[in-house]
Amino acid sequence: MSLTPISGRPGASSHDEPRHKITTASLREQKLRHEPITCLTAYDYSTARLIDEAGIDIVLVGDSLAQTMLGHQNTLSLTMDEMLHHVRASRRGVRHALLVADMPYGSYQIDAHDAVRNAARMVKESGAEVVKIEGGEKRADLILRIIDAEIPVAGHIGLTPQSVNVMGGYKVQGKNLSGIEQLMRDAVALDRAGVACLYLEGIPREVAAMITAEVNTPTIGIGAGPECDGQVLVLHDILNLSFGPPAKFVRRYGDAAALITQAVQSFRADVKSHKYPADEESYHLPRETNAALDTVLARKRAMQR
Ligand code: KIV
């Protein structure tokens, strides 16, 4: 399928610099060049396409879709099939960005064989280029096995939402010395295992800076301060579509909620007041058919008299 840029969209015009495909190798080069890596979540064809065409480096189909798209309280109930459905749709919209997909809770924690099989399924059935797995040191062996199956893996440490019940809520991690030591061990273990990139969520800026300086893999922060090699945010958060008070690190770049509400209210008002659709928004019969129809109707009326 061809992905023709939609004219008038920022980032989509032909005078832009030619864009290269982002790969796991080019992410490492970005880290070496100190060129910040950009990442946003997407969950479907249209948002993935808009994000890709705006020049974002990584499209992450995060399991946050459980909350943003499906209205769940947390990410725990999301299934492999639901994830695959959304990654497939996003895949169709992505041309240049690297497509990273979350492995849902339960798809890799229970059995290593199943984990590798599920990771392969994600790549084969959805077109994801990298699978993301939550957890540090204790996942290093599993990550090695998945990489051994030719599947690039993204790590995710710090506040890992799939461990919400173990953490006792969504809490910033690594706030004391033992927590910092654990995070450093987690980061180094995943770096040695060869992760393609490392998501750092909900950790103090100072700790994220130490990890970023220590590891070769590019770090991508969310609530982890500005020293990370890149930044990720949830699309619904930056667009005010999350229906709740934003976390400290969220910056709103638009108000899609207001835009949608206003458009929907205007549509409703136009229909109720017979202003929509107008004649120019209606289809018309061809002149000859209209004339023939008039004749038929006139004949019918004459017969009824
Ligand atoms: O699911 C998600 O959106 C994520 C990001 C917050 C990193 O994992």
Explain this structure to me?
The chain has 305 residues and is of the alpha/beta class. It has one domain: Phosphoenolpyruvate-binding domains (TIM Barrel). The protein is 42% helix and 12% strand. The chain is built from twelve helices and eight strands. The protein has helices spanning 24-33, 45-53, 65-68, 80-91, 112-126, 140-148, 164-167, 177-193, 205-214, 235-238, 256-272, 287-304; strands spanning 37-41, 58-61, 98-102, 130-134, 153-158, 197-201, 219-222, 230-233. The chain has an eight-stranded parallel β-barrel, surrounded by seven helices. β1 (37-41), α2 (45-53) and β2 (58-61) form a beta-alpha-beta unit. α2 (45-53) crosses α4 (80-91) and α8 packs parallel to α9. The longest helix is centred in the C-terminal third of the chain and has 18 residues, at 287-304. The relative contact order is 0.10. Residues 1-15 have low confidence and may be disordered. Bound molecules: 3-methyl-2-oxobutanoic acid (KIV).
If strands are numbered along the chain, what order do they take across the biggest sheet? Answer: 1-2-3-4-5-6-7-8
Biggest pleated-sheet summary: 8 strands, parallel, barrel
> How many whole angstroms does the radius of gyration measure?
25 Å
Order of helices and strands: HEHEHHEHEHEHHEHEEHHH
Q: What shape does the CA trace take?
A: elongated
What structural category arises from helix and sheet content?
A: alpha/beta
How many independent structural domains? 1
Average predicted local confidence, pLDDT: 95
